[in-house]
Specification:
Blueprint (H helix, E strand, L loop, with lengths): L13 H26 L3 H12 L1 H4 L6 E4 L5 H7 L9 E5 L2 H12 L8 E5 L12 E7 L8 H11 E12 L4 H23 L3 H12 L3 H10 L2 E9 L4 E8 L4
Helix pairs in contact: 1-5, 1-7, 2-4, 7-8
Length: about 250
């Protein structure tokens, strides 16, 4: 049966899944950046920057309304900001884990006067406090996989995008071949052990490989996007398919 959303161990319903994920990320927030960069050998920075480059035309428009949802500690937001012109409209950076968001807000506040900025917003990705058809771009990096309901998330992003607005979902995948076999050993055995050693908790970094294993494969994910009303749906693999960027566009009004 295809996965409908994140399901941490021991949860049975969407509300419990969302609460467990929120608690998990709040708990690891102090070590989150360190572990991300260490466990990915800093390749995650390349993925964020590559994703931001994919949306250069819309980011170059100073009036474009941009949302980084499930922004975590704000690294994807910072990559987007580097491609915004001076005086541009601030980016909305939203997450429902307050401890993660507060660390991102400190990064945004450290921007120099006159540089493009971001506004931190505590919000649930499935219930955004935003008007319909109010955004030109919605981006999420390594957060969509943690939503309690993938279809509901896609519908909510579609609701807040303007006709012609773009969606970008950067997330992990499971590569095939020899690379996939080697990565599976690292991802399922080595990564959880390092994460447990540094953050002192077993759950979050055991949850990570389990969540990737449950996440829809590219063909299924693209079908979900199409069903939710997106056009021009595509997937661009990064680093042998370890991660990848899903893109889609809300249909423009004829």
């Amino acid at each position: 049966m295809p996965a409908t959303g994140a399901k941490p161990t021991g949860v049975e319903d969407e509300a419990s899944a969302a609460q467990t994920v929120r608690q998990m990320f709040n708990a690891i927030a102090p070590r989150y950046d360190l572990l991300n960069h260490l466990l990915s050998a800093n390749v995650d920075r390349l993925w964020w920057n590559r994703t931001a480059r994919s949306f250069r035309p819309v980011l170059a428009n100073p009036d474009a309304a941009v949302l980084d949802i499930c922004c975590g500690t704000g690294d994807m937001t910072m990559a987007l900001l580097r491609r915004r012109p001076r005086g541009a409209r601030p980016i909305l950076a939203a997450d429902f884990a307050r401890s993660m968001l507060s660390r991102g807000a400190r990064k945004f506040d450290a921007r120099k006067p006159g540089e493009p900025g971001a506004v931190a917003l505590e919000a649930d990705a499935l219930h955004l406090p935003l008007r319909p058809a109010s955004l030109d771009l919605v981006v999420t990096a390594f957060g969509f996989r943690n939503l309690a309901n993938y279809e509901a998330g896609l519908r909510e992003f579609h609701r807040v995008l303007r006709p012609g607005g773009q969606l970008g979902i950067l997330d992990f995948s499971e590569p095939g071949g020899i690379v996939g076999k080697a990565y599976a050993i690292y991802f399922r055995r080595v990564l959880p052990a390092i994460g447990r050693l540094i953050c002192g908790r077993d759950g979050p970094y055991s949850y990570l490989p389990a969540s990737v294993e449950r996440f829809p494969q590219p063909p299924e994910m693209l079908a979900l996007m199409s069903t939710a009303g997106y056009n021009e749906c595509a997937w661009q693999p990064y680093t042998f398919g370890i991660a990848g960027l899903y893109t889609g566009t809300r249909a423009a009004v004829a």
